[in-house]
Amino acid sequence: MATDQSSSSLREIADCNGAAARSTARLFSTDVGTGRNVMFLHGWTCDSGDWSGQLPFFESRYRTVAVDLRGHGKSEVMPSGAYSPEDYVADVESLITTRYRGEAFVLIGHSMGGQIAARLAARRPDLVDAVVSVDGALGFSEDTGKAFEKTAHDLQADDPRAVVAALFERVYGIATDPAHKRLHASRLQQVPLHVIRESFAPLFFGAGQVGIGDASAKFCARLTVPFYHLCLDPSQADRMGPWFSHSKSKVQAWSNAGHWIMQDRNVDVNAAVATWIDSL
């Protein structure tokens, strides 16, 4: 377990990461289909390719935008100190307000992307019709936070790619396709080290964190848009269920899947999410 001194260091890393002057990154995205606006946001060390099991289905039903976040995939790599959640949020906000002026989106985010989507909904509800969070970085218990604290510490002290690879192995499910694991491992080698190191801790530690404990509960309670959260832990689903005020919001625990629920159960996720979107 991390020491109090290391906890303090993590808070400093998280706080300082958002302290630099904020500028938006040039984001790569695809835009296919017609109908309701839907935007996909991937997770930490990933890219929009994570949604390959969703995009053909959603593109046939909606106008579907899939984004590579800053420092990931084909998007611009920003310098060290520019990987706080608010940096990521500012990029997506800028993308919508400049390229899709006057329009709003259903945001579908996985892991870190789920928290980014929720933060944008809190900051600019006029740009967000609803949020789908696929095991998003929200609602974790204090006990889970202790494990995340060790991960954040190890990212600074050890080889960050090895730390991420070990974390991924712990969160895969029995149903996770080995081909997906190989894709994740290969892609991880392409993510700059400072992006890996600096993106994780601010999700869960430091001033303004919304991923863990009471801070996450209070944040979610302030959201006004419909919110659909898919997670793995039934106790987490029970805990988070009452947090959301909109009548269309819901939280569901999914079985027979790992952290990439949308890859392990892509047909079921596609049907569930589309049904929910169409009900709004």
UniProtKB/TrEMBL annotation:
InterPro entries: AB_hydrolase_1, AB_hydrolase_fold, AB_hydrolase_sf. Keywords: Hydrolase. It holds the Pfam family Abhydrolase_1. GO terms for molecular function: hydrolase activity. The keyword Hydrolase applies. Gene3D superfamilies: alpha/beta hydrolase. It comes from the Bacteria. This is Alpha/beta hydrolase. It comes from Paraburkholderia sprentiae WSM5005.
